[in-house]
Amino acid sequence: MLIRLNDASPATFTEQIVAQVRLGVANGEISRGERLPAARELAASLGVNMHTVLRAYDALRAAGVIDLRRGRGAMVVGGDRPEIGRLFQSVSALVVDARNLGISAVELSSLVKGLAS
User: Fold this and answer.
1) Which of 9, 78, 102, 109 is paired with 93 by a 20 to 30 Å CA distance?
2) In DSSP terms, which residues pair with 74 in a beta bridge?
3) Which of 33-37, 70-74, 93-97 ranks highest by mean pLDDT?
4) HTH gntR-type domain: from which residue to which, for each copy (predicted)?
């Protein structure tokens, strides 16, 4: 599992980690029963605070995607519905299109927020 964080993204690092894990589960890159890296290990590899990863793992646990057990780590227990995977793919395509048109991430975020409200 490869997670990349974008400093320029309007999304927090926690939100980016959650989105990338959910996308990995939705598109089959991460399978049910697979263990995620320990929070300390993932934080070190990403160069972020361990609590950032712990917040992401807690959000994934609350969404029913992973199970957290002290001493056993985080394990994928459920998957997102297939339509979530399609949504992530659509959003990825939107981001690429916006980038090609010269629309910044901040502008795109504002456009989406405006449409969602």
Assistant:
1) 78
2) 68
3) 33-37
4) 11-79
Cβ-contact 76, 65 below 8 angstroms: yes
* 3-state class (DSSP) for residue 77: coil
CB atoms within 10 A of CB 43: 20
Report how far residue 36's alpha carbon sits from residue 117's, in angstroms, rounded to the nearest whole number: 34
In angstroms, the CA 113 to CA 115 distance is: 5
Whether residue 16 contacts residue 52, with contact meaning beta carbons closer than 8 Å, is answered with no
* Domain chopping of the chain, boundaries: 10-80, 81-117
